[in-house]
Specification:
The chain has about 110 residues and is α+β, with helices and mostly antiparallel strands. It is built from two helices and six strands, in the order H-E-E-E-H-E-E-E. It comes from Strongyloides stercoralis.
Length: about 110
């Protein structure tokens, strides 16, 4: 027997989550440096600071500029709550649900 009610609720939940999650730009600038978004990834590195309960991504960008960071992790900690980590350097990155990482683009060598 097919459970149409459960299927409907599941599909509705997926649609709600898809459209309620904040849309992050694929690239952003911090000063003269460009950062590229790696969605559903967490950058691993030396943490300089973290900001709990951020109101918007500008708080993370400003902290990154202040610390001259190499990456910023953004984590969803509750349905509408987010935090960010400011990283000094990057050792690696790995898949992580509810996370996104902005990593500085390295200049091309001559």
């Amino acid at each position: 027997m097919i459970f149409y009610k459960e299927i409907f609720y599941f599909i509705s939940s997926v649609i709600f989550l898809t459209y309620s999650c904040p849309r992050l730009p694929a690239n952003t600038w911090v000063g003269a440096r460009r950062f590229t978004l790696m969605q559903s990834m967490e950058c691993k590195g030396t943490k300089l600071t973290e900001i709990q309960n951020i109101l918007d991504a500008d708080q993370c960008r400003d902290a990154c500029q202040e610390y001259n960071c190499a990456a910023v992790n953004i984590f969803q900690i509750s349905e509408f709550g987010f935090m960010c980590e400011i990283l000094e350097d990057i050792f690696s990155y790995e898949p992580a649900q509810g996370a996104s990482c902005y990593m500085v683009d390295l200049p091309l060598s001559d």
